[in-house]
Each structure stands twice: as C-alpha cells, then as structure tokens.
Amino acid sequence: MLTAAIALAAAQAAAPATADYRDTANWLCRPGRQDACTVNLDATVVAPDGTRTVEPFKAAANPKFDCFYVYPTVSTDDTGNSDLVIDDAERRVAMIQAARFREVCRVFAPMYRQVTLKALRDMMAGKPLSANPALGYADVKAAFDDYMKHDNKGRGVVLIGHSQGARMISELLQREFDGKPDRMKQIISIMPIGFNLDVTAGQRTGTLKSIPTCASGTETGCVVTYVSFRSTVPPPAKTRFARTTAPGMQVACTNPAALGGGSATLDAYLPTGSLLGTAPPVEWSKGGATVTTPFVKLPGMVTGACVERGGASYFEITLKPDPADARADDIPGDVMVGPQRLDDWGLHLIDMNLALGDLVDLAKTQAAAWEKKR
To answer: What's the whole-model pTM score?
Structure first.
C-alpha cells in the first residue's frame, strides 16, 4: 500500500499541466459548430400494436441557459489516463447522453484525461491503479473555469455527468461550491447520474453539506441523482452501486419524473447502439424490421421509483411487458461479460437514457424557476 501511495504521489507531481480549453479541439461539444452533439437524434416510437412513428429531434433555436456535461468511463486508449483526442467512443457517448439536452440548452462538454476502460478493467482484476484520477479532475475544473470566464456571461447552468463524469461533478461541487452560496447563484441544477452520492439517512444533504437533493421542479441549486437496477435484479450484497459503508448514510436517489416521491412512467430514450460500442441489433417489435434511428421509445413500458430495500437505496426500474402485444418484452442495458450479466452494475449503461426525456424536461422547468427567482 505504501509503495502504491508513493507511486501515485510521484505520478501526481509529474503530471503535465491541465489542458488549454481556449483550444476548441479540447472540447467534445460546444455551441455554434458541427460536432459530437450536432448529430441526428430522431427516435422511433414503437406503439403496443407494433406501429412505428418517427419523433424528429429539434434543437432550441436560442436557448437561454447552458448545460455543462462530463462523460463517463468510455476511453479505449491503451493507457491509464486517456489523451485529449476525440475518438468514436467519446462521440458516441455524447450523442447517447448529452446531445438531447440541446433541445433546451447550449451544451458544453470538455475532453478530459479520464481513467480509461483499460485502467478500470485492471482494477476490477485486482491489479494496482495504473491511472492518476487527479489529472482528470484538474482538466474538468480547468474546463469549467474557462467556460465560466469566457462563455457563461451570467447565464444559468445545469451540471450533468454520468459515472466517472458524475464523480467529477461531485468533486467539483465539494471543492468549489459547497458552503459557498455566492458561487451557487448561477447553478440551476446538478445531475450526477450513475454515482453513489451519500446523504444522511432520511435527509437531503450529506456528502454535500449545503446542497440538497431536489424535492420539486421549482427548486434550484439542488441535486438529481440515482443509480438504476431492475426490479427483478436488485443490488446484490456486494455491489459497487446503491450501498454505502459510511455509518448513518445512504446513497441518494431522486426520481426525475416524480421528485416528490413515488413511481412514475419514464420518458425513456433508449439507444439503438451500445454505450460502449457495437451490439447485436435489438428486435424492438416482434418480427419487426431493425430500427434505424439512433433512439427508440416504448411509451408506457418503463417505470421508475426510488426505493430502499435490504440496506440499498436505488432507482428501481420496472418494465410492463405484454406478451400478447407486438412489442419486445425486455430492453437491453445490463453490463455483460460474454454471456454473464454483472448484477452489481445494475442498468448502469442506460442510467441516463431510462429517464432522459424527464431530465431534459426537468432542466427546462428548473431553468424557468431559476430565471423567475432572479
């Protein structure tokens, strides 16, 4: 352990300077240009009788607020930390998770030297950490500082992240915003999804001492967060999500479709391709042709509720299949290693997509409330 700590300290000391975010090549998405977020986002809506219609995507012509998005662990670079070169993996995740927010806001998404999939696999195999997590955070902070200095111009901003990106957002909040009300003035909402954010059991604050979870759509400067699991596959005893070892704490869960609590039908935009690469085509309707749009919607089929069971706190996803209708009775989204499903990951790959329409709508609602409060 001591040797590993010394090695990590040496790596941090020798880390190169943070990236230059005046260089637009270091941004995955920025307004006013063609990039990973200005792509086709149409969705095929599959009705219970198998009828299909296409829901076209339309970006806001003149959005009044901004969204700052940090992507999850997707880098395929063969190193511990990624470089800043935009690859297909980063483009794909921006399309799947972030680009739809252009319906309501300008989207800023920096590249950052994240811990790669290779480093994650090594850690899961019990090997020493081969990456410097501090390097990725330093990049994200530098990107956000650059955005605030050059692009924000007094606009409200929603902070969004998934998985490793959510951890970056949480760390940014802890270091730069928690307990600093003046800095929070321009924060409309925070959405760190697919990440264990601890709160005091039964309370709305915890790790973030002064920034609560959201209880209504008119509340601003608050957090919307959850980790998702199927109702049929709850978090196992040893799980990386939904459980905390901190005494008196629990993992926060907020349902973006029902912030006041309870179950709600979710406005899910399910990607027709995998978050991490190519995947076999899904038969979204029985005997139907392959869906060719980037997203598919199955109205009324996916519901979600925040639950506390067996010491775990999580977003429970329930499907409402009908074997008699024309639609598929299941959705993809589990983390698979060959034929084996990793139950401790839950529906991590589609955390955001399960309620993506709700998250976009909530950002718009909270932005209107933020503007009114000003």
So the answer is: 0.93
